[in-house]
């Protein structure tokens, strides 16, 4: 059975087949170049486009939801073509991510594309966080309670899960994502230096290359006021010669400047842009910062198990890979967590891929692949007919078949809130009773059953809050050997 994974995000589509071979990352846009007047769809932007200056983007997704179905179909057609995945949908099962709180009409149209346009034999759809309990992000066995912080292109969501099910009434959204940060950087640079308002491609690379999350905003701001030669924070980004190269680069400390180079001097812009995630009011956005949003989400959960959520906070999404992001969030969560709580943040820094011998690790993957690998970890569950909708079921019942099964599995946000909270809490109470009768008598809820190597030793912070930062691989060798066989 061929299992196709499609993580269709606002900026890019991450697609692949479970088994040998890495995923493909394709721009989710139809792009027109002002230089050669040509139009490029998806992967063609990287493989065929030469002049990346002043590109005009036609984005299928705006503010997190599909609004241009013609553009989206063009990109999906390219992804499934022989030039990219080269798969036969008729003989394939699809695992697809969808936005949190996706609109019913968008869900129905997506189902029609899956089963009528592409004729997949079966499919399952769910938000990225719904797949996270199937991963090794929190270790094996995974915890019963967790919070996923998913910071992507359009939004940042805080998503609690109990017993593998999303607690929808406690999900919180922060209207800050990668697109907003890139636009903010374009405005700052255009006002202070070069006009870069039309250079989305370049400025997105500048953001990913130069920006970091400050641990002391005022001190870093003062440091940038020094002479450029003395300010260690200041970097020089050499703009590309777009007829020869696609992206620029940061000048090395020992590199001699050339008169013909066009340079962006990146000072406080490096940390002022990611700061918006933690202080949205800096740009007039009347919303709480990320730490307060996490605290507000956990506060809506049953009080007697809130500590388990504080102890299992996972980070996914491209924005969480800013240098210093995890450390800054940890420090801010310490100040809002109840006294005596264990605040633990988990983040995957490496992935285990099934085609590598002996479960070797590949480092350096961008965390935009987090949702893709979570969906891959979900693939063995496809053997259950209760989780997938076949094409025959769709043709007989329509989109209601997908809604019915997703609600039964509680992967759909329209599930009854009372059912989610009641069932999940009841499961937790049963599990707690069994644990209390175990031979060693230890309370596994405090550790979540995690057996991982810690990057940093535990410290006792002020207020009695214990903090730990853990980086864990996505799966064990044995687990991914199962995926390899399945693929």
UniProtKB/TrEMBL annotation:
Subunit field text: Component of the SWR1 chromatin remodeling complex.
Entry-linked PANTHER family: ACTIN
Keyword list, A-Z: Cytoplasm
Record-stated family: Belongs to the actin family. ARP6 subfamily.
Biased composition annotated in UniProt, kind: Acidic residues: 432-462
Entries under SMART domains matching the protein: ACTIN
Role description: Component of the SWR1 complex which mediates the ATP-dependent exchange of histone H2A for the H2A variant HZT1 leading to transcriptional regulation of selected genes by chromatin remodeling. Involved in chromosome stability.
InterPro entries membership: Actin (IPR004000), ATPase_NBD (IPR043129)
Coiled coil feature spans: none
SUPFAM superfamilies per record: Actin-like ATPase domain (SSF53067)
Protein name: Actin-like protein ARP6
Pfam families: Actin
GO cellular component terms given for this protein: cytoplasm; nucleus
Region annotated Disordered, chain positions: 416-468
Location relative to the cell: Cytoplasm
Tagged with keyword Membrane: no
